[in-house]
Write a structure and sequence with these properties.
Length: about 400
C-alpha cells in the first residue's frame, strides 16, 4: 500500500482525489500496489464530501506520519509550499506538485534535496497542464541538443484570445468564464500579464539546458493590451494572435521571452485554440516535435499530477535523475532578437507613410474596413533594438505585435 497526502483541495487537489478514486484499479495495476489517500490538507472544511474523514488542517500530522510515502501539493504559491516541500523530502517522502511558482523558483534546490534523500521531486503538471512535456524533455529528447522551444503555455490567455477573436466576446467576460472553469490562477494577473507563461518557459528552458533560468530575467509581455481591433487586423493579414513563451539557443547564446505573436497557418501552433496548449520543441537531430493537449483544468491537470504519483510510487527508493543545476543560465539581451513587427499608428497612411519609411525602411501598410483614425503597417525583419529606435522617433504608435 502506498499512502499519499494531498495538500490543497481546490481545482487540482480535488481532481487528484477524483482521478485516483476513478482509476484506482488501473493505477494499482501499473504500480503493482494500491494507492491510499491517507490525508487531505486544506484550510477549509468540506462537510459531506468524500474527503470529510481524511481532512486535516495541520501539516505536521502529515509530515510526521511515517506511513505517508508521497506528498502531493496543489495549493499554489511559494509560502508555505516551499517549506512543506522541503520538510516532506527531509522526512523521506517524495513530493509531486502542480505548482509552477514553486518549481520555477526552487526547482534546483528541491531536486538536489530529493537526490540526497533518494526520493523524488516531480512536477509534470507545472507546465502544459495535462500535456506530458517534463518527462519527455527529461527522458525522451535526450539524444538531441534543444535548439528552440516555442509554446502556448497558458490556457487562460489562449482561451480568452480564442473567444475574443472568434466570438467577439470582451476580455472581462471571458476572463470570468476562465476563472469559473478553474483555468485561471488565484490572481489572474499571473495569467494575463504573462507571468505564468514566463515561469513555465523558465522551467522548460532550465530542463532543456540543465542550468537554472531565473524567470525574472525573461522579458515578459502579457495580453492586456490586445484589443478587438488587433484581432481584426490579424484576420485581414490571415493571422491569429497567440501568447508565446519562447526560448532559443544560438551558438553559446540563449534567448527567452514571453509576448503575443501574430502567426499564420504555416505555424503548427496556429490551430491551438481555447484552453489547449501546444509546445513545439526543435532538436538539432530530431527536428520539430509538438506536444498538444489540455493546458489547464481540473482533470487534465490532475491526470499529470497522478502520473507523477505513479512514477514516485514505482521509484519508491530510487531517485529519478533530472538535470537542473542551480548554476545560472545567463540569457542574452533580447535587443538582438529579430522579427517582423505589426504596428498600429494613429493618423492617415497618406500623411505618415513617408515618415514611417524614413524610420522603419520598407514597410507594408494594412487597413481594415470600419477602423478609422488609424492604420497599420508590417515591418521587414528587424532587431528589437532597431525597432525601439524607430518607434521612439515616430509619433502616434498605438501598439505593436511581433510577427513570425
Ligand atoms: P485552487 O485555488 O483552486 O486550490 C488551492 C487549494 O489549496 C484551495 O483549496 C486552498 O484553500 C488550499 N490552500 C491554499 N493554501 C493552503 C495552505 N496553506 N494550507 C492548506 N491548504 C491551502 O488552485 P488550483 O487547484 O487551481 O491550483 C493549485 C496549483 O496548481 C497552483 O500552483 C496552480 O498554479 C497549479 N495549476 C493549476 C491548474 C489549473 O488548471 N487550475 C493547472 C496547472 C497547474 P482556500 O481556498 O481556502 O485558500
Ligand atoms: N492558470 C494556468 C493556465 C493553469 O491558465 O494555463 C495551468 O498552469
Amino acid at each position: 500500500m502506498i499512502n499519499i497526502a494531498v495538500l490543497g483541495y481546490g481545482t487540482v487537489g480535488s481532481g487528484v482525489v477524483e482521478v485516483i478514486t476513478t482509476n484506482k484499479e488501473s493505477i494499482a495495476k501499473r504500480i503493482g500496489d494500491d494507492i491510499n489517500i491517507k490525508y487531505v490538507l486544506d484550510l477549509r472544511e468540506f462537510p459531506n464530501s468524500p474527503i470529510e474523514n481524511i481532512l486535516v488542517h495541520d501539516f505536521d500530522t502529515i509530515v510526521n506520519d511515517e506511513e505517508v510515502d508521497i506528498v502531493v501539493e496543489a495549493m499554489g504559491g511559494t509560502n508555505p509550499a516551499y517549506s512543506f516541500a522541503k520538510a516532506s523530502l527531509e522526512h523521506g517522502k517524495s513530493y509531486c506538485t502542480s505548482n509552477k511558482e514553486l518549481v520555477a523558483k526552487y526547482g534546483p534546490e528541491l531536486l538536489k534535496l530529493s537526490e540526497k534523500m533518494n526520493k523524488n521531486f516531480l512536477f509534470e503538471a507545472s507546465v502544459g497542464g495535462g500535456i506530458p512535456i517534463i518527462r519527455p524533455l527529461n527522458q525522451s529528447l535526450t539524444a538531441d541538443e534543444i535548439m528552440e522551444i516555442t509554446g502556448i503555455l497558458n490556457g487562460t490567455t489562449n482561451y480568452i484570445m480564442t473567444k475574443m477573436s472568434k466570438e467577439g466576446l470582451d476580455f472581462d467576460t471571458v476572463l470570468k468564464e476562465a476563472q469559473e472553469l478553474g483555468y485561471a490562477e488565484r490572481n489572474p494577473e499571473a495569467d494575463v500579464e504573462g507571468y505564468d507563461a514566463c515561469r513555465k518557459i523558465a522551467i522548460l528552458t532550465s530542463l532543456a539546458y540543465g542550468q537554472h533560468v531565473d524567470y525574472e530575467d525573461i522579458y515578459t509581455e502579457g495580453i492586456t493590451k490586445i484589443t478587438d481591433i488587433d484581432f481584426k487586423y490579424a484576420a485581414k493579414l490571415g493571422k491569429v494572435i497567440k501568447l508565446f513563451g519562447k526560448s532559443r539557443r544560438a551558438g553559446d547564446k540563449f534567448f527567452a521571452m514571453v509576448a503575443p505573436f501574430m502567426i499564420d497557418d504555416n505555424n503548427p501552433l496556429y490551430s491551438v485554440n481555447g484552453v489547449l496548449n501546444g509546445i513545439l520543441v526543435k532538436g538539432n537531430v530530431l527536428g520539430d516535435v509538438m506536444f498538444y493537449g489540455s493546458g489547464a483544468g481540473k482533470l487534465p491537470t490532475a491526470s499529470a499530477v497522478v502520473s507523477d504519483v505513479v512514477d514516485a510510487a514505482k521509484h519508491k527508493n530510487t531517485h529519478i535523475m533530472q538535470i537542473w543545476s542551480s548554476k545560472k543560465l545567463e540569457l542574452s539581451d533580447i535587443a538582438d532578437a529579430k522579427s517582423r513587427f505589426f504596428v498600429r499608428i494613429s493618423g492617415s497612411a497618406d500623411m505618415k507613410m513617408e515618415e514611417i519609411a524614413d524610420h522603419f525602411g520598407d514597410v507594408k501598410p494594412v487597413s481594415v474596413d470600419g477602423v478609422t483614425g488609424e492604420f497599420a503597417f508590417v515591418t521587414q525583419v528587424m532587431s528589437e533594438a532597431e525597432f525601439e529606435k524607430a518607434a521612439e522617433a515616430t509619433e502616434g504608435i498605438i501598439t505593436r505585435i511581433r510577427m513570425e
